[in-house]
Design brief:
alpha/beta, 10 helices, about 20% strand
């Protein structure tokens, strides 16, 4: 098995048929069919199901497609990093949580690409449970997290203090309150990101495990939760400043006592960084140290 065969397979799945994939890859249909058959024989399992409507993935084919796509992405990144030139170039891939502290990094990113115009950023919105596997697999250089990283990572503390609260429609019964207490959340239908459910800080503030909250739905992107809040599925438990300003029909009410979320730019300790990622981290560290604490308005 080699990268060429993996690329053939991934292209075939994306095209939805061997005929269309062969035209895209500039190979004959019999050649592509033979390559896929040989791949299936090597692996000992069928990867594709053929029908008059086209092709579909078997369960093992889906696993192979996902892993092959990751390997091809890593191969492209490796080629770009090694090929290089005298001019700093390449792509810095970041998996980022939704946090207003992203504005801190955006300033550093903007200044960095002005100085190094052949460097670009690939920013992937991802909650912690999606960001960490990408970081561990080498599919991204950096991850912006709202909870402290584990000991296998180095990180920069962005020194952010993002206050937690509820987003509710202005017609919600809690909209008359100026602050939200733990008692207000008991039995209240809530919408929230998966990541904070594992936060010990939230457990301590509540006085009971966050897993006992009444969760109507979880989400990865805050914007997707706003229509659900309008539809009456629950109040959104999140922190201030991600959507700024909020739509006029929605209201943010802070928690009391105040609880803040941090922000951490993390990377794997044991994995060497590209020159571009290493230099960007140096710049970001200096700028964050000089800027002081960040508190969203």
């Amino acid at each position: 098995m080699d990268l060429k065969v993996m690329r053939y397979f991934v292209s075939t799945v994306k095209a939805g048929s061997i005929t269309r994939a062969a035209a895209t890859l500039y190979v004959t249909q019999p050649t592509l069919t033979r390559q896929i058959h040989e791949l299936e024989e090597e692996l000992g399992h069928p990867l594709l199901e053929r029908s008059r409507q086209g092709i579909s993935l078997t369960p093992r084919g889906l696993i192979f497609y996902q892993r092959a796509s990751e390997l091809l992405e890593m191969a492209t990144r490796l080629k770009d990093e090694i090929r290089g030139s005298d001019e700093l170039a390449g792509t810095i891939t970041m998996a980022v949580a939704e946090t207003p502290a992203m504005s801190i990094l955006a300033l550093s990113m903007s200044g960095f690409i002005r100085e190094h115009p052949f460097v670009s950023f690939d920013v992937i919105s991802a909650s912690r449970d999606l960001a960490l596997p990408r970081l561990n697999a080498g599919l991204c250089d950096l991850a912006l997290l709202i909870l402290p990283p584990d000991p296998s990572m180095d990180f920069i503390d962005l020194r952010a203090a993002c206050p937690w609260g509820l987003i509710v429609p202005r017609t919600h019964p809690l909209a008359v309150k100026t602050q939200i207490t733990a008692a207000d959340l008991r039995g209240l239908p809530l919408l929230m990101s998966k990541g904070p459910l594992s936060s010990g800080d939230l457990d301590a503030w509540l006085g009971f495990p966050a897993t006992q909250l009444r969760i109507g739905a979880t989400f990865n992107l805050l914007n997707n939760s706003l229509p659900m809040a309008r539809a009456g599925m629950g109040a959104v438990l999140t922190f201030a400043g991600i959507v700024d300003p909020l739509p006029d029909d929605l209201l943010f009410i802070p928690l009391h006592p105040r609880i803040n979320s941090g922000a951490y730019l993390a990377w794997k300790k044991a994995r060497p960084l590209s020159d571009a990622a290493r230099l960007f981290l140096e710049r970001a560290r200096e700028e964050i140290r000089a800027r002081g604490a960040f508190v969203p308005s």
